[in-house]
Structures are given as C-alpha cells and as structure tokens.
Amino acid sequence: SAVISQKPSRDICQRGTSLTIQCQVDSQVTMMFWYRQQPGQSLTLIATANQGSEATYESGFVIDKFPISRPNLTFSTLTVSNMSPEDSSIYLCSVGRMNTEAFFGQGTRLTVV
Amino acid sequence: AQSVSQHNHHVILSEAASLELGCNYSYGGTVNLFWYVQYPGQHLQLLLKYFSGDPLVKGIKGFEAEFIKSKFSFNLRKPSVQWSDTAEYFCAVSISYNTDKLIFGTGTRLQVFP
Questions:
Q1: What averages of pLDDT result for each successive group of 10 residues across chain B (114 residues)?
Q2: Which residues of A touch B101 (CB under 8 A)?
Q3: B41 burial class (0-12, 13-18, 19+ CB within 10 angstroms)?
Q4: Rounded to an integer, what distance in angstroms lies between the CA atom of residue A48 and that of residue A35?
Q5: Per the CB < 8 Å rule, is A96 touching B100?
C-alpha cells in the first residue's frame, strides 16, 4: 500500500491568485497522477507527473494553468494558476504501481471566490 | 478515445434490496478494472479490482463484480444493501501496464433508505 499526504486539505482563494498543492508519498513511486473532481462529477485526470522529465498533460489541461513539479520519487506539487471560480474543485494526488490498485490522497478542496 | 460509462447516475434502494450498477468501457485491448467507493465526506476507497483470472471478483463489504469481456462490462453487484452503503460509486479502467493511469466513469450515487 501507499500512504499519501496532501496539503492543504482545503483552501479558499481569491480569483486571479495561484495555489500550490503538495503531495507526499511514504514510498518511492515512478508515476504520480493529479486528478480533478469538480462538484458532483467524476474524477478527471489532469496530468501524470514524471520524475526527471516534464509532466504529461491530458487533453484540455495545459502546463501554464497547472504547472507540476516532481523533484523526487516521493513528492510532487500541482499549482492552480490564475484561478477563477470554475477552478473550484477537489484536487487529488494518486500513485499506482504496475498491476496494483491506485492509491489516493485525501484531496484538496479548493474554493475560488 | 477510451471511455468508461456508468448508466445509472442515481439509484435509490431500500435496505435488503439487491444492487447492480452497470459499467461499460470502450477499449479493445487488455484492461485492468476497478470499482471505487466514496462515502460522504471521505476519500476514494477501493472496493474491488480485476486484473486477470476468474472474471467474478469479490471485494470488501460483500460487493462483487463480473468482468464480461465480450460485453466490455464490469458490473458491480451486492445481494442485499445496507444503509451504510450510501455513497458514490466509480468504475475505473486502466489501459496501460506501465502507468496505472485511471479513466473514471461519471459515478453512480447510491442512496439506501432504512
């Protein structure tokens, strides 16, 4: 298993500002994933955070809006930039190992006002 | 593009009723299949998973799911639901052995009344 800690657990931010979310895993993992869960909706993958290379973004998500860092095998950050109310969501960090389940952090509940 | 469909968006049952939630995916290759549950105010938890072998898999809390390859389906079942099963249920698919990246369905909200 993997234990994932996310910070902050929640935040209320002003539009136009940026928020950086941290994700710490208790063991080394190759791939880390960032998901977004908009109110009342399912999880959508934002990007895959690769250690030692740039993150791989899914369709509809861009690096300028969601820059990601992955400095080592246990840590990643996701920044939500120039926020608008539409960015209000739960952001989740996830890790998985080949042919095992994915583990999720408790999420960061972001409200943009 | 690969996708996961959950046809039941909102299901309301009485306790002891049987449950079946549908999940279909679109991908012709090898897949890993998952059901996750999200109880109110809590984070995602794995109910069960299928990688290979017996297509009927049993998970926690009395849940089971059957993988039918010909139908691209992985339906979740429970013979007798409880009030504590009230939650959001998500079907998910991993299509790569290398990344474990998940594609989620839209979720099914289950409400169980005593």
A1: 88 97 90 92 88 93 95 97 96 75 92 95
A2: 31, 33, 45, 48, 96
A3: exposed
A4: 9
A5: yes
